[in-house]
Each structure stands twice: as C-alpha cells, then as structure tokens.
Amino acid sequence: MPINFRIDANGLPDGREPKMDFLESSFFDDNGPRRCLPAPAEVRALSGADQARPQPRPVKFEHLNLLVKFGPHVAIAEAQSLWVIKRVLCNEVPVPEVYGWRVDGGDVFIYMQLVRGETLKDQWDFQSTVEKRTICDHLRQITTSLRRVEQDPNNLFIGSINRHHLLDIVFEGEPPGGPFATVKQFNDWFSRLPWLRFPDSENIQDPYRTFLPDTGTIKLTHGDLHQGNIIVSSTKPPRILAVVDWAHAGWYPDYWEYCKAAYTCSYDGEWRVKWIPVFLDPRPEVHEVFAEYTRALGAV
C-alpha cells in the first residue's frame, strides 16, 4: 500500500522572515556557502524595463543554474510550497528546487533552480499519440502523489499552504478568503462572491449553490495544471522535468484541480476532452457550476 505523507503548516520555513537562504540546497553545495544569492537590486537591473510590469518575467542567471521569480504579486507561499513538496515527495513530484527568498520594496523574490527544457504547450503538437500517452501517464503519477499528501488531522483547513488566505487567480480582486475549516464553508464563500456586487446580496437566491459538493475531501492542489506549466525534455522519448508555477497552490476541495485544469483550456479541445481525464479524475458536473461562478467573477 502506498505511503501517505503529511504536511503540517507549522513545520514550514517562517514566512515572516524577509530573507531566507536554504543552505542545504544544491545552490550552496555547488557554489560554496560563501556564495550569495543575487541581491534584489541586481535582479531588477537585469530585468530592465520589464520590472515595471505587474508580473515581470523571471530573470535567469544561466551560469548559476538560477531563476528568480519576483514582483508585487509573488508570494512567499509559493517558495514554501516548492520547499515542502521537494522535501516530502522528493522526485515523485518534480519541481524546481528552491534556494531562498527575499522581500524588498514591496516585491517578493523567489530564487529557484533553472529547469532547462521546453513547455509542453510548445512541444505538444510534435508528440505522437504514444508520446502524449506517456506524458499524461506520468502526470497521473504526479497528481496521484500530490493527492496522497495529508494535513494534520487536528489542523484541517482550506487555504494557502501556510494556512493563510487563498491565492488562486480566480479570486483576484475579491476580498481575501480563508482559511476555511470545512469544504462547506469554502463553498458558501466561493458561491457568494459573484453576488457581492449586487445590493441586498444576502437575499439573492443562488441557483447553483446546491450543485457544489460539500462532502468531498481536502487535497493538496497545484491549481494551474495547464500545458505552459509543465516542462518536458526536448529529447525523445519526452520526460516531464518539472511542474512549475505553484503560485495558486494550496489546500482545496478535491474537485478544484480538475475544474481549474479544464477551465484553463479550450472547452472542446483535445487536451480537455481526451487527455486531462487521463491524469485527473473528471468532474464535469462540478465543472459546469464552477465555470458559471468563474465567468460571473470575470476570471480568465
């Protein structure tokens, strides 16, 4: 029987620290303990005019095998997610190794391994049916490992990895929500969001709420499993090198991973219809309701 792993929010690196170095990481092993991570000012200088964007492109330091993701919308919770997934699941869920973080001038800088490969989005059309199946079978192994991770049974919640409010882009621009103690509490909050902009919103009868399941379990969730966040090798046969962009990750109802994956691609496309069900259990009945809410919120 597979071993289930446990993550305790209290065991994460302290997110209140403005500077964190993971000295046990390969960055310091390879470059020596005296090697410092590039300062935020150096990262900004290399970013140039791009740093003025709400979501600047990550900066690469090729010679250091380093990528720095930064900006005002980057959260320390993403670094904590990378740290704990690598620590608990090792290579079962391939993610970039995180080397540290900095908080500077309202921006968070996450220093992580530069994964050299191609996005599945760029490579998908060049894969044979057999290769596509191989990739999706590997994704199934990855998502199965994620879903084996458990919370402390005495500290169950729906929220970001560090037990703070939820970070999914679906909720961008909405009042922060979470953590929630139960799936029902989350569903009650999520289902009310589209109605908050209307007067007397509490008295509006929501026609969709009863279709959100309150009896599911809480699962560790990536929250953005689209082809652009899956890095594969350029060699044949293709291998998944890393699943990246854990900005939306957290503890969510068990339906959330499928609904988000299905919502981030073409409704009638092959990826959604044929391949997502290979690596995620389909929840089409919940997705229809989920889609109504996300469209009402203006989420894309």
From TrEMBL:
* Domain (Aminoglycoside phosphotransferase) ranges: 89-262
Q: Any stretches that span the bilayer, and where are they? A: none
Q: Which Pfam families match?
A: APH
Q: Which PANTHER family match?
A: AMINOGLYCOSIDE PHOSPHOTRANSFERASE DOMAIN-CONTAINING PROTEIN, AMINOGLYCOSIDE PHOSPHOTRANSFERASE-RELATED-RELATED
**UniProt name for this protein:** Phosphotransferase enzyme family protein
- Source species of the chain: Amylocarpus encephaloides
